DNA sequence: CCAAAATTGGACCTGCAAGTCCAAAGTCCG
DNA sequence: CGGACTTTGGACTTGCAGGTCCAATTTTGG
């Protein structure tokens, strides 16, 4: 159905999404006007509505997809290879580094409130992200259990759920307080707790 | 300076704040118009700007304060009396119950994005809430350490930070997925881990 | 090379929600 | 009771951001 995109069109569309994403990260969802996106990407209103007929909401949705994918990509290749304690630590370090650099600019935070409530599609994107994220963590835990580095009695799904929640909260607290301490504490204590489980 | 409020005025102001808070909880920050608040509280535009001269932003700030206080009040008297394991469990249950009932309606989520970025004052309110919350948890941990129910080697501040982050993330995941599982997992696993610390 | 379709620019429209204003009504206190 | 205030209602103004429209241009595929 959306087969009517030439190479140039595809490029323009991508430029719009990337530009809008950057703008949103920088200033927040509800501070970004279509005009800002136009200026920042060198496009016209005609193009915006050509590629996103439903207007702002559709654009925001595309941005959300883009950002959700980015969140997981930024954790690779660590996230998919949680197969040893050093690997876990490397992942932990990557998370800290990434969010420290990102600071107050959370791309998805606003999307929960802004589009999340009214657009079920946005909700689905965030939910999907969380599900994929948690699945990756679960797999890491399972692998560590298979090598005996984490006790078999640990409920991998539940532990992954808790760790994911901790990360989300850590990031949220980074957003509101500007300090990385919470994220660090959660990661270290949770991972330590998993590590400890094998010792008894 | 704001000494020019008769009893009737005070009541009206409170009615506006409470009504706006309810409306925001129900429909989200950026879906609520001043007209909605007027309709819902039986007030006129004149009154809104009489009590909140700076307009919407000032009203939102008052609502944020109101809601932040409520968050902690809803956890009392448990939160201030984390002095035994049953007490901790009671607190845990209260949290689950409260957020289960609240469901998708988070009063403060939007305030981070909406007012948080532009209004440092809103940021301060959220930060203050988190700080008070964490302090209460820390105190609970310290008390349990004094009775030997939690190992002395545990860093109370750090543990409290991690637990708070877990709770925030659990609530966030409740908002996006609609499931309480994450919050439950975080609370149970973290509390268990604290409990376990005393056994070694 | 040429028609059909995609792409682009930008002027214009429109609705809405925040904010202004002021006059009428009520309240307070000596 | 009376004058000075707070409180209230609601009509009006304003700016702005999202969305519409269409004509000009470029690209595509046969």
Note the overall shape of chain A.
elongated
Based on CA atoms alone, the radius of gyration of chain A comes out at: 19 Å
* Largest sheet, strands/sense/barrel of chain A: none
Distance N to C terminus of chain A = 58 Å
Quick rundown:
By secondary structure, chain A is mainly α. Chain A is built from 9 helices and no strands.
What would you say this structure looks like, in words?
Chain A has 200 residues and is mainly α. The longest helix of chain A has 27 residues. The termini of chain A are far apart. The first copy, chain A, is built from nine helices and no strands. The model of chain A has no long low-confidence stretch (mean pLDDT 92). The interface between A and B is large, with 44 and 45 residues. The structure holds a DNA duplex (30 and 30 nucleotides).
Keywords, separated by commas or semicolons:
homodimer, 200 residues, 9 helices, elongated, DNA-binding
List the helices and strands and how they pair.
The structure is a homodimer of 200-residue chains.
Chain A lengths: L6 H21 L6 H8 L3 H7 L4 H18 L11 H18 L6 H5 L6 H27 L9 H22 L3 H17 L3
The structure holds a DNA duplex (30 and 30 nucleotides).
